[in-house]
Design goal:
The chain is α/β, with parallel strands linked by helices. It has eight helices and seven strands. A seven-stranded parallel sheet has the order 3-2-1-4-5-6-7, sandwiched between helices. It starts with 8 loop residues before the first strand and ends with a helix. Pfam families: adh_short. It comes from Aeoliella mucimassa. Belongs to the short-chain dehydrogenases/reductases (SDR) family. This is 3-oxoacyl-[acyl-carrier-protein] reductase FabG.
């Protein structure tokens, strides 16, 4: 079910920096009517308001705080496109002393946060004609990297939830897009020590707009991601997406 972003009302979590900020820039350039810039601290959206004026509506969402998500869904009752970009990465191997604590934190934001967003905004999207939900996952959802194994585990879980959402939300006419970037030039990539292989965040943001317009379910936007997709595509098309089409 293709979805064109032009003249739509969008919401982007983690909108103030990194991939989220670039997504906002790309959506504005693509002609969206308004973007709810969802951030943990509303003043973090001030540079976006300075750049785009009334097209930006700052909105407080902390994926670690369920009450902010419920409140945001009540405020942003006109949303037609939800892009859940915000996430956290803690560098913890599976054998790290604090591995369980770090995984608990990453699960709460990266997985339970997605579920809370879906619970709160699925009815809003349905009321506004179906719309689209975009979840920014990662190549780490498909393979583990030992130095940050807990993050990979959380992203594998969020991808699994995304697959379930794709089936369920199709019933109300909502398109779901699962995005799987590799190293992207953001603070998160720097923290993970991947800056030497990181690619521009516009690959993600422009890829999202194009994938929504094409009605795609998966997006693997950068070099590392495309290499993984070349091996995974057959399984994804014949198993993951086929199950979705069966409902």
């Amino acid at each position: 079910m293709p979805f064109a972003v032009k003249d739509k009302v969008a919401l982007v979590t983690g909108a103030n920096r990194g991939i989220g900020r670039t997504i906002v820039d790309t959506l504005i350039a693509a002609g969206v009517k308004k973007v709810y810039a969802a951030v943990r601290k509303p003043d973090a959206a001030d540079p976006l308001v300075d750049a785009y004026g009334r097209k930006i509506a700052p909105l407080r969402i902390d994926l670690d705080d369920p009450a902010t998500i419920v409140s945001a869904a009540e405020t942003a009752s006109d949303v037609e496109l939800v892009i859940n970009n915000a996430g956290v990465l803690r560098q913890a191997s599976a054998l790290a002393d604090d591995a369980v604590e770090q995984l608990q934190y990453e699960m709460n934001v990266n997985v339970y946060g997605l579920m809370r967003m879906a619970h709160a905004f699925a009815p809003v999207l349905k009321a506004n004609g179906g719309g689209a939900l975009v979840q920014v996952n990662s190549v780490a959802s498909l393979r583990s990297f030992p130095p940050f194994a807990t993050y990979c585990a959380s992203k594998a879980a969020s991808y699994s939830i995304t697959q379930a959402l794709q089936v369920q939300l199709a019933e109300q006419g909502t398109q779901v897009l699962s995005v799987h970037p590799g190293p992207i030039a953001t603070d998160m990539a720097d923290d993970a020590g991947l800056q030497d292989m990181a690619e521009p965040p516009t690959l993600v943001s422009e890829g999202i707009v194009a994938a929504l317009a094409a009605g795609d379910y998966h997006l693997f936007p950068d070099t590392m991601a495309k290499q993984l997709w070349s091996e995974y595509e057959s399984f994804a098309k014949n198993v993951v997406e086929a199950r979705g089409s069966e409902g």
